[in-house]
Specification:
Layout (H helix, E strand, L loop, with lengths): L7 H15 L3 E6 L4 E7 L2 H6 L4 E5 L7 H11 L4 E5 L8 E2 L6 H14 L5 E6 L1 H12 L4 E7 L7 H11 L4 H5 L4 H11 L9 H11 L4 H10 L18 E6 L7 H11 L3 E6 L6 H4 L1 H13 L2
Parallel strand pairs: 3-4, 3-6, 6-7, 7-8, 8-9
Antiparallel strand pairs: 1-2, 2-4, 2-5
Helix pairs in contact: 1-3, 4-5, 8-9
């Protein structure tokens, strides 16, 4: 492994952390119970006491830790909300002794975190895997979770959808896609997740990303992937509608969870659900077109 001062990823990580700090957030670690510790970026308690703003919880997707997925949202939303950005369990510095590996366990852990922070009510945004967690939080805590944003997240995923993803990626198992070990595997994931072609990026930079962002807790993350609840191929997906107002945000070129899944999910989640599609983006519209994503979400959260 190259020294961190020779790593572009490490240097860029310093810049991202500075962005979070200048947005008024601090790095914190909180024991939510005897087994689990959650790392997050959050405002100081005295800051939340002085400024009366609604709370907003950002839940990242599978891949690098939270700071790599939410920088532009943190910079945009902190003037309007008290923003909380945790690392899900086994990402970043969040860890547990528990043997639980489901998205429901992640949701329970995030709920305990917000209780520890004494945040009584909050909006939640979840992208990709974080959208699974956001859905379960909203279902379990309708008295605490207010509006819900689910972005690029196939909560309605069947085993057949999983097999179709493997075919698109020309891969034999989901771990090769979501937990790349080589530059070639990360290049495949990038082609699926980002609409713009990145053929000019050299392998050494992809290898740096793999080393710095995908190497920790691989065994536990594989268990998390296997723990995701999928409906059987021929089964009708059964999801309880949510009581909250729900916004789905999707990229029209998403190859991880294709747009047709967004339309089906909208029907499953009930009449209080709306769908916004961002053109010329794929699986990470919050990064590819952050301006449009942020404005769509702000209008939804701040509207009546």
């Amino acid at each position: 492994m190259a020294p961190s001062f020779l790593s572009f990823v490490s240097l860029y990580g310093i810049y991202i952390r500075r962005c979070f700090a200048t947005s008024g957030l601090t790095s914190q670690s909180i024991d939510i119970d005897d087994d689990t510790t959650i790392h997050l970026w959050a405002p100081n308690p005295d800051q939340t006491a002085q400024e009366q703003k609604p709370a907003l919880l950002l839940l990242h997707g599978f891949g690098p830790s939270a700071i790599w997925q939410w920088r532009r949202q943190v910079q945009f939303f902190t003037p309007y909300f008290h923003v909380y950005v945790p690392d899900l369990v086994f990402f970043g510095n969040s860890k547990t002794k528990s043997k639980e590996r489901s998205e429901v366990f992640q949701a329970v852990s995030m709920g305990k975190l917000m209780e520890k922070l004494q945040v009584k009510k909050y909006h939640v945004i979840g992208t990709s895997y974080g959208g699974f967690v956001a859905y379960h939080m909203a279902k379990m805590c309708p008295d605490k979770v207010e509006k819900v944003v689910i972005a690029s997240s196939g909560v309605n995923m069947r085993k057949a959808d999983n097999m179709a993803l493997l075919k698109r990626a020309n891969s034999e198992n989901i771990e090769e896609i979501m937990l790349p070990e080589t530059a070639t595997q990360l290049r495949t994931l990038t082609h699926l997740a980002v609409s713009k072609r990145m053929n000019i990026i050299p392998d050494f930079l992809f290898n740096d990303c793999v080393t710095q962002l995908y190497s920790e807790n691989r065994k536990e993350k594989m268990e998390l992937l296997r723990g995701v609840t999928l409906a059987d191929c021929n089964d009708t997906v059964k999801l309880a509608p949510l009581q909250q107002d729900v916004l789905l945000v999707w990229g029209d070129q998403d190859q991880i969870f294709p747009l047709k899944m967004a339309h089906e999910l909208k029907e499953l989640l009930g009449k209080k659900t709306k769908l916004e599609v961002i053109e010329n983006t794929s699986h990470v519209p919050q990064i590819e077109n952050s301006t449009k994503f942020n404005n769509i979400v702000r209008n939804f959260l701040c509207g009546s």
